[in-house]
Amino acid sequence: MHKVEGEPMSQDYVVRYVGGPLDGRVDTLSQLPATLKETVTHVHLHGGPKIVHHYDLHYAVEYGCEYRLRGGAE
Predict the structure, then answer these.
(1) Which of 74, 37, 39, 71 is nearest to 55 (CA)?
(2) What DSSP string runs through 4-69?
(3) Which pLDDT value is given to residue 51?
(4) What's the pLDDT score for residue 10?
(5) Are 26 and 33 in contact (CB under 8 A)?
(6) In this structure, what DSSP letter does residue 71 have?
(7) Tens of pLDDT along the chain (74 residues)?
């Protein structure tokens, strides 16, 4: 887990998702989280086999952080 330190932000903290089925999703948080997950797992359930995507944490100074789809075969 990453500990996020510093002064409180005066604006909302934005978490963006890049790639895969969550591409373009934006979560806006009113408060800076004390810790952020290094990896987010998205599981798509449907009539067939479940599809799993992993997103890894990257920081973006401009707005907060983003989770990028992990590349390569999983």
Answers:
(1) 39
(2) P-SSPPSS-EEEEEESGGGTT-EEEESS--SEE-SEEEEEE-SSSS-EEEEEEEEEETTTEEEEEE
(3) 93
(4) 57
(5) no
(6) P
(7) 444 455 454 577 889 999 999 999 999 888 877 888 999 999 998 888 999 999 999 987 777 799 999 986 44
The alpha carbon dihedral of 65, 67, 72, 74 has a sign of positive
Model-level pTM? 0.73
Pull the structure tokens for residue 73.
């075969």
Q: Tokens 């983003």, residue?
A: 66
CB atoms < 10 A from the CB of 16, how many? 19
Token representation of residue 33: 């989280």
